[in-house]
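Protocol step 4 of 5: obtain the predicted structure for the target chain.
Materials: sequence only (see below). No template structures provided, no constraints applied. The aim of this step is simply to have a reference model before the mutagenesis design in step 5. Sequence pasted as it appears in the construct record:
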Amino acid sequence: MKSYRKELWFSTSGRRELINITPEVQKALNESGIREGLLLCNAMHITASVFINDDESGLHQDFEEWLEGLAPEKPYSRYRHNGFEDNADAHLKRSVMGREVVVAISDGKLDFGPWEQIFYGEFDGKRRKRVLVKIIGE
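Step 4 output (structure tokens):
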């Protein structure tokens, strides 16, 4: 069995952003040479997420509104965590959206269902953060 590891780096201009990272993940899979196996993709920061869903702008707006309703950014005083940093809402949003995804690899491709894509969700951006891609298989 072979394994492959790669870090993907992202910088967002806004505090919150959803980025379709499927092409970068597929590129890492191509680089690995692995044709059958499993791919793990996870956010390496506690205020960011990796998840699978549809790449549809209306849905992305729905995520933004839903998450902001669950854990509004302001007032900062609402959260006990806020003090040195004002990002408690980002920690909560990450908890809801998840840390990682595992995708089957079949014939050298990400084995998705219809419309599935991998997304990086940034909830406390404006700085450089990374995502780990770890692939195992043959």
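Step 4 remarks: The mean pLDDT is 97. The radius of gyration is 16 Å.
Proceed to step 5.
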